[in-house]
């Protein structure tokens, strides 16, 4: 079975799993028009993109410590990029290549778009707001992570392993695919979607599946000699951070929504209107 065919089947199974566990998704009841692919989604995307880009200016304490730890880990791994690459390539074989071809689909833009669309359509058909919201937040996260990744690729211009120039070769602002190694787009894309799905569900099975796929997709880029290990590590961290930030911003937006409820009983009839901020 070809890699894309295998992943099509796997995604179908994953969607069914999401549907059967949808009660564990955060499905608060609100107005029927919520969580749709409409102008509000576009407005939220623009606002969240701006917020994600400007958020580092407000980082302090724990945020800066986390950033330092991630960058430190990336730099430490970068020192051994060529050694790791050599050992991975030495152990590559036909079986590992077939598995890698399948795993790499987890970070493929078309495959991820298909998963997001599938979640949205499934939520629409099943009337599950939680699935629609997960799909829209995943789309937001994927778009923002992809934009940031593209900017960094262009600005850094790190040479890919196959270029033969070594891990320390950089060509800033060189618009060539051979100089677009950092960060890994497959890794950032996979983790940007996986982090949203994991955040929006209370199902351990879905969490493990989502992060497992993202990890395999990231590793496949090293196996296929497309990226250095540090590209994959920091790309994954970028996708994860964007996904978590998008979910946090959505949570604040939910808290500010107007709530409406009707309480009817034998001794009481009341309409309650509330606004949280």
Q: Care to describe what's here?
A:
This protein is 65% helix and 5% strand. Strands 1-2 form a two-stranded antiparallel ribbon. It has helices at residues 3-20, 39-54, 62-78, 81-90, 94-103, 109-126, 129-156, 185-199, 204-223, 229-255; strands at residues 258-264, 269-275. The chain has a single domain, classed as Vanadium-containing Chloroperoxidase, domain 1 (Up-down Bundle), CATH 1.20.144. The protein has 277 residues and is mainly α. Strand 1 and strand 2 form a beta hairpin. The N and C termini lie far apart (52 Å). The protein contains ten helices and two strands.
Brief sketch in words of this structure:
The chain is mostly helical.
Low-confidence stretches: 26-33, 258-265, 270-277
Q: What name does the CATH topology carry?
A: Vanadium-containing Chloroperoxidase, domain 1
**Structural class by helix and strand composition:** mainly alpha
The level 1 CATH classification is: Mainly Alpha
Known CATH architecture: Up-down Bundle
Q: How much beta, percentage-wise?
A: 5-15%
Largest sheet: 2 strands, antiparallel
List the helices and strands and how they pair.
Blueprint: H1 3-20, H2 39-54, H3 62-78, H4 81-90, H5 94-103, H6 109-126, H7 129-156, H8 185-199, H9 204-223, H10 229-255, E1 258-264, E2 269-275
Antiparallel strand pairs: 1-2
Helix pairs in contact: 1-5, 1-6, 3-10, 5-9, 6-7, 7-8, 7-10, 8-9, 8-10, 9-10
What key phrases describe this protein's structure?
two-stranded antiparallel ribbon, 10 helices, 65% helix
